[in-house]
């Protein structure tokens, strides 16, 4: 069971080496993370983008690109299409976003010709390593599905659970996060949380333990749960935080990064391959962790 992002790197180095395709790779932080991932033996890499810009950055930063293949394509839309086609054609196992918009990359991924559409719902999972918590926290979905309904929440949970399994977390504990820890008919998130919990108990959602609704404090603090009289296998031990909407996921994730100084990794799941996706503002270390996460989630 992986309990830290450093352990994530170690596990990725032990597994079979995967091939990473980078769309529009002319970015210093992206190149630094990819080169380190290659040097650590986690992946092989193919860079798609403006070769002159890539080599100019490498020269300025003293990066060694000798073992990395580069496909020259200056047009960003075409570069994204090529990066995706490498996966479609079996030359690469997963994709990383470089210097282009998320929507532009997803447009290439979801193009019918690419053949990478796998599930109906693509969802974003961030993993946080926060000093105040005793293990990794998965957060979903703060980046893809704005206002998920119950059917979408089921898919979002299943994507996150599958990812947790790839990190050797055999039975992740899922907390549907709400403003309160009781079912309130006027608060749809609490009704959805109760439905997910019941579906899990009846074996409709497998491979995890779901209990909710839970407020954030009960999900991550046994003391808070005890104070409120909550008895639950998930309370104080949550692995996966399922948020009710994209705003709450965005706020909570950025709070863990900027206020709690947590390190993070992020990917999109639901396509036929993982898509490494982190904010352009994130550090190269975050991007490195995300590459490791993508490589591990290829082993389904």
Structure write-up:
By secondary structure, this protein is α/β, with parallel strands linked by helices. Helices cover 41% and strands 17% of the residues. It is built from 11 helices and 11 strands. It has helices at residues 5-14, 28-39, 51-61, 76-88, 102-110, 150-166, 188-201, 216-220, 222-227, 246-258, 284-297; strands at 18-23, 43-49, 69-72, 94-97, 123-129, 137-140, 173-176, 209-210, 240-242, 263-269, 275-276. An 11-stranded mixed beta sheet has the order 3-2-1-4-11-10-5-6-9-7-8, sandwiched between helices. The radius of gyration is 19 Å and the shape is elongated. The protein starts with a helix and ends with a helix. The relative contact order is 0.18. The model has no long low-confidence stretch (mean pLDDT 94).
| Envelope shape | elongated
Number of β-strand runs: 11
Largest sheet: 11 strands, mixed
Structural class from helices and strands?
Answer: alpha/beta
